[in-house]
Amino acid sequence: MAADATQYLLSEGVGLDAALAELSGRFDVASDPSQPTRRTFYDTFDGRLHAAGLALIEEDGRLVAGAGPCYRELATAIRPAAWGERLFAGDLPDGPLRSLIGPIIEVRALVPVARTRGRARAVRVLNGDVKTVVRLVLGAESAVLGGGGDEVRLRARLHVVGVRGYDRALARVRRTLSGELGLEESGVALHDEAVRAGGGIPGGVSTRLDLRLAGDGPALAGAVVAMGEMLRTIELTLPGVVADVDSEFLHDLRVAVRRTRSIQRQLASEFPAEPLGRFRREFRWLGQVTGPARDLDVLVLDLAAMRAQLPEDRARELDPLGDLLHRRRERERRRMVGALESDRTRGLLAGWSEFLGQLGRAGVNGGGDRLLGMVVGERIRRVYRQMSRAGRSIDDGSPAMDLHDLRKQGKELRYLLEIFAGLYPAGAVRPTVRRLKALQETLGRFQDREVQATMLRSLGGELVAADGGPAALLTLGVVLERIEADGGAARAEFAERFAVYSAAGQRRLIRDSFR
Amino acid sequence: MTRIIASYNIKGGVGKTSTAVNLAYLAARGGARTLVWDLDPQGSSSFLFRIKAKVKGGGDKLVTGRSDVGGLIRGTDHDRLDLLPADFSYRRMDLALDATKKPTRRLARVLAGVADEYDYIFLDCPPSISLVSESVFEAAGSLLVPLVPATLSMRTFPQLERVLRDGADAPAVLAFFSMVDGRKRMHREVMEQMGRDHTGLLGTVIPAATDIERMGLHRSPVAEFAPRGRAALAYEALWAEVLGRLNGGGDGRAMR
Q1: Taking the model in full, what pTM does it have?
Q2: Tell me: the pLDDT tens digits for A486-497?
Q3: Residue A147 confidence (pLDDT)
Q4: Which of the four pLDDT bands, split at 50, 70 and 90, describes residue A363?
Q5: Residue B254: its pLDDT value, please?
Q6: DSSP state of B92
Q7: Cβ–Cβ of A3/B75 closer than 8 Å?
Q8: What pLDDT score was predicted for residue A12?
Q9: Per-residue pLDDT tens for A185-232?
Q10: What pLDDT is attached to residue B253?
């Protein structure tokens, strides 16, 4: 059923009527009157649909998931009546469109990334039986910027869509368009051009690390570049955290803060002690003020997954708990946003940026004499040794805090490995990260379940007073049992995961490769 | 899940092609990926979609699995609506089927190769009771049976019911009155009588309308050239009622 599609850019200044006249002179065509178009394109902040080669378009009350630059239709749905500027997978109508989009965007929200409006005219190329053998769409559209005031006219386009079984007619049309008419084929989708016209980046904003650092360069200069990248992520994600677009903004911001703190700690000897000490205290504060809101985000997401495992009537009994969590999350969020919008945060970020700038400029003029690869390798070996020692001392009777501390060290090591991955052989970094991630997943599940169980228990008093509270409390008991069972299972997995992580082969890999 | 719906009647001239073409058009217009297979060697559906009634290699190669079915399908003038054209050689399809193993499963096997591409497949069947019909009954989940409320026409319905009663996994029968002239007393009487005798008939009635005859002139579904006419409205009502039956659990089977 898939139709072969191509698009061409019309010459600058050529309108729809002139283009139609050109086409009529070369093919037998029938055309419909031109129609107004008004489209909104949705994607996640990090461009997950774009990365999957998809676009989600809202037009005339319909939603269309299209593939490729010509938006080959894959799934459609009627736009729901309640339709906002921020949509999660669950807000999409149940059906093929949600099945296609949901697994790609996961917990991220869809937000408008581009708006266009203009006119389009459908033209059909006909054969001797007056049968449509190629479909054309002439479109002249503008990008609507910001609040909808300004518009930027985009190059007019001609979409050419083949009709199944009429390949020769399609080939003839293409030859004529690119040969006789000299039209330029374009692989850039209309909405990408619209995003660019508004000063944006097609494909969204990635917070993924892709640092190209030189191991034989000064350690301080490398650390400054890496921390500059973290600062960029903090500044990019901060507006999304404040606007509460989706939970990933806060997650990404907190990861960037933790990575910053990790480099500050691990490479402290390369920095001047002051003002580094002050910045370390301030970043610690930033981590603390964003923690409770993130814990509640995780709990809300996990509770949704747990609800899905309960019978429908039991799941409904948890509604008062869901409401309570949302209220608590809102309260914590307000506190967090207050802190993030405070002079203290603004001062911290501006001061940190200034400090990194100074160090960067000093680095260009010489900087320290210790090499980045050597310093980071030393730290990786050291943290690995510390973790191995700490892990070996953990047994079934060890307090939970020992596992939590081990997880913290694991995070420290993981950040070093991820941030400075390019300095060491991929054959050493990849298996180390894989084994560490497996261990961290177990430790993380154990700690998350502990935190969640404690938090849910603390809600009991408030919950029982709520409407439907007693029933919710009973079902909460079932949920708590499951949380504790999962936490227990994670703890039971620990020994096995740690054995893999601290095996002789892995120890050798660390010792020999991170130098 | 692909739904295969056959437009079928033992008798000819009852509106099978109009039913298949108009309902397939409405399905596609509603967003469903739709295919019509014109099984009638007369090629009326193919004609209405302006597509040559010609299949490379003929019906013999097609039903014996020696043709690339996907390569034979043609896009119509309408979004999401494709056609597997008729071929004059389909007049010998009975013989071609008879020469195969498990002949009644052949049409379903032909469609299996392209079923994933479509939400609905409509079979526009020739008027007969034959090996082709048996193969249609195996492939289709539902049979749309247009009934002209006239004595001779109505005689064939009990015959069809008998044939289907013998089948182990027969398709659901969705019968409705077609080509109805409300001014004719006989039409009214036959419809009343049938309504009493057969409680499962669809309620929508397709009128004997000039617009349906004009489909041949326009070579197009009625909704394209007379969207507000009573024929177009009747087909819309019929499709809505069929969808209700299909979605209400009345459908026979998915693609096998």
Answers
A1: 0.79
A2: 999 999 999 999
A3: 65
A4: low
A5: 34
A6: G
A7: yes
A8: 83
A9: 988 899 999 999 888 888 988 878 888 888 888 888 899 999 999 999
A10: 41
Pairing mode of beta strands A35-43, B120-124: unpaired
Asked if the Cβ–Cβ distance from A1 to B80 is below 8 Å, we say: yes
Q: How far is CA B242 from CA B11, B149, B236, B239, in A?
A: 21, 20, 10, 5
State which residue of chain B sits closest to A128, comparing Cα positions: B50
C-alpha to C-alpha distances, B139 to A314, B5, B63, B105, nearest whole angstrom: 43, 9, 13, 7
Pair type for strands A132-144 and A111-126: antiparallel
pLDDT level of residue B256 (50, 70, 90 thresholds): very low
How far apart are the C-alpha atoms of B148 and B239, rounded to whole Å?
18
State how far the alpha carbon of B190 is from the alpha carbons of A109, A152, A466, B187, in Å: 59, 66, 65, 5
Name residue A124's beta-bridge partners: A30, A135
Are A57 and A39 spatial neighbours (Cβ–Cβ below 8 Å)? yes
Rounded to a whole number of angstroms, the distance from the CA of A473 to the nearest CA of chain B is 39
Tokens 């596609």 map to which residue? B28
In total, chain A counts a number of residues equal to 515
Find out whether A458 and A299 touch, Cβ atoms under 8 Å.
no
pLDDT at site B251: 42
Q: Which residues of B touch A165 (CB under 8 A)?
A: 71-75
**CA angle in degrees (0–180, nearest 5) for A102-A108-A110:** 80
| Chain B residues in contact with chain A using a Cβ-Cβ cutoff of 8 Å | 31, 33, 49-52, 71-77, 80, 82, 117-118, 219
Q: Which of A1, A76, A129 sits opposite B50 (nearest CB)?
A: A129
* pLDDT of A499 over the 70 cut: yes
Residue showing tokens 């000063």: A199
Which pLDDT does position B255 carry in this prediction? 34
Mean pLDDT of B119-137: 93
* A70: nearest Cα among A200, A128, A157: A157
Cβ-proximal residues to A340 (8 Å cutoff; 6+ apart), any chain: A238, A241, A242, A289, A290
Residues in chain A with CB shorter than 8 Å from the CB of B33 are 1
CA geometry: angle at A106 spanning A416 and A61, to 5°?
Answer: 140
| Strand B172-180, strand B205-207: pairing | parallel
Residue A2 with chain B: CB contacts under 8 Å: 117
Among left, alpha and beta (phi > 0; psi -120 to 50; other), residue A301 is alpha
Q: How far is B222 from chain A (nearest CA, A)?
A: 17
Across chain A, mean pLDDT equals: 90
